[in-house]
Amino acid sequence: MDEMLQTRILSAVDSGFDACTQFLSELTSYPSTRGREQGAQEFMAQELAARGQKVDSWRIDVDDIAHMAGFSPVKDNYEDAVNVVGTLSSRTRKGRSLILNGHVDVVPEGPLDMWDTPPFEPCVTDGWMHGRGAGDMKAGLASNLFALEALRHIGFAPAADVYFQSVVEEECTGNGALACLQRGYRADAALIPEPFEEKLVTAQPGVIWFKVRLKGLPTHVAYAGAGSNAIEAAIPLIAALHAMEARWNAPECRDSHYQQVHHPLNLNVGKIEGGDWVSSVPAWCEFGVRMGIFPGQDIEAAKREIEATLQEAAQEIAFLRDCPPSIIYHGFRAEGYALAEDTSQNAAKAIGVLEKAHNAVTGKALDRVSITATTDARFFGLYADIPALVYGPRAEAIHGFNERVDLESMRRVTQTTALFIAQWCGLEPI
Ligand code: ZN
User: Fold this and answer.
1) How far is CA 118 from CA 39, 40, 106, in A?
2) How many Å lie between the centroid of ligand 1 and the Cα of residue 316?
């Protein structure tokens, strides 16, 4: 790309950056946790339409996607899960097409008194925007949008079709991105600005969610010996799962992309409930678990090992021998994905273009990272033959309290994205 054009693109991002920050603030103010994404999605649809994109907004229907590879089971049908995709059609179609993907759903904010400022009242201090979802990943949606906006500002549109995806369900199933595939959206590459410090993600684990349900025998606590405490029975089962986690993480079991990562597969007991009354021996307990698996690791084999681990541990507890724990799979049934293994020309080309753009903006080489969380990249890479580049801004405390995103980092990612689009898709005058 000639240097003058590059400079014009970079300064167009700069001059639109206040608007970009304002957009991020407004988007972050929508409490778009699972089931409550509609306001944020309506806002996204409006913003895309206002910028000349053709907007496709639809409610995800489980029946449409349940048969597809990569589908994760859900308890109910989706009454309220709405995807939004904006299309920018090129007149010339002389370049390569692109999907710009981001998710609008955020994880629950947790107890409000643990936040320094209210999670859905975004505020900026010292160059960071605070708020639930600001980093994961509304800043990415903002950078996608304002990269396109910068090109428009200087009179250009991408010279290939660009699909701007604002999806739901990333944080629990990925079924939002899957529904975009079902709807027919395809491109030569996908860019997903998840917040991984301006590094290119070259491997991500798979994730399995499961729930363990234990039934005990309720008695008055005065005769506790005769009862079967379902809550206390959970403790050795959780310990057994952690022992399994340690086995899977042993250096000799580690996937080649994770040789240098200390503890790549994490087991998290993220929710627990049980019992009805403090003076009654609890008759039930239920806990929800998230477990990682390596790229290439078979999900069904992993599930069998999880089940065997739980059944074996249950054998040690007298009442569970008669009433073994039940295991329910709702939520992530996600395979791992390694962009590093994509040997296609498209992948090499896309990574090369990103490398150049990143270097032009930061003056540095593009670092690669194997992450320990999943992203929607797997759908494009594994099931649609579309190399998926995960590259986004620096954020802190995502899924935690006082989540925040580094605005200068978002500016650089927006610039890199604008250069990437210009180079990957080519440009045509508006
Ligand atoms: Zn995310």
Assistant:
1) 18, 18, 15
2) 39
Count of residues making up the chain: 430
Q: Judge if pTM exceeds 0.90.
A: yes
Which two tokens mark 205?
Answer: 């684990």
CA of 375 to the centre of ligand 1 (A): 6
Burial of 387 (0-12, 13-18, 19+ CB in 10 A): buried
Residue 404: closest CA among 128, 78, 157: 128
Please compute the mean of the pLDDT values over residues 382-386 and round it to a whole number: 98
Chain CA centroid to CA 195, Å: 10
- Delimit the domains of the chain by residue range: 3-204+337-429, 206-334
Structural element, H or E, at residue 164:
strand 162-167
Gap between the Cα atoms of 22 and 42, Å rounded: 17
CA atoms of 340 and 233, how far apart (whole Å):
43
d(CA 339, ligand 1 centre) in Å: 17
Which band of pLDDT confidence, cut at 50, 70 and 90, is reported for residue 274?
very high
What integer pLDDT is reported at residue 227 of this predicted model?
66
- What value does the mean pLDDT take over residues 120-141? 98
CATH class as words, domain 206-334:
alpha beta
Share of the chain above pLDDT 90, in %: 91
72 within 8 A of 333, measured Cβ to Cβ: yes
Q: How far is the CA of 373 from the centre of ligand 1 (A)?
A: 9
Top-level CATH class of 3-204+337-429?
alpha beta
Dist. CA 189–CA 389, nearest whole Å: 8
Q: How many A from CA of 378 to the centre of ligand 1?
A: 13
Confidence bin at 223 (pLDDT 50/70/90): low
